[in-house]
Amino acid sequence: MPFTQIILQSLGAGQKGFIPTPLDKLLFILLYLKCYPTYDLQGLLFGLDRTRVCRWVKILLPVLEMTLGRECVLPARQIRSAEEFFRAFPGVKDVFIAKRLNFDYII
Asked: Secondary structure of 14-31 in the HEC alphabet?
């Protein structure tokens, strides 16, 4: 096997998904709550794998909720009807609706 090198790595070795400072951790979880990015995008922004992003969210969200003394609620991912949209945003007057894949999407 001249062109192939086998690398043995012990369990637990390798790069850890690491967010270095408390300020970075606060920025991480607040950005997640404010923008609700995918784990892939959040990982790209913080140099983490998507599985590490998921773990950090599960660790940091309860800490933030305990600190604030209330539960942090994420926005709905998708609004499926005009009625649902108007309940969520009562001040809006006009909405354009486009048909796609048998679902109504609010634009």
From this structure: CCCCCCCCHHHHHHHHHH
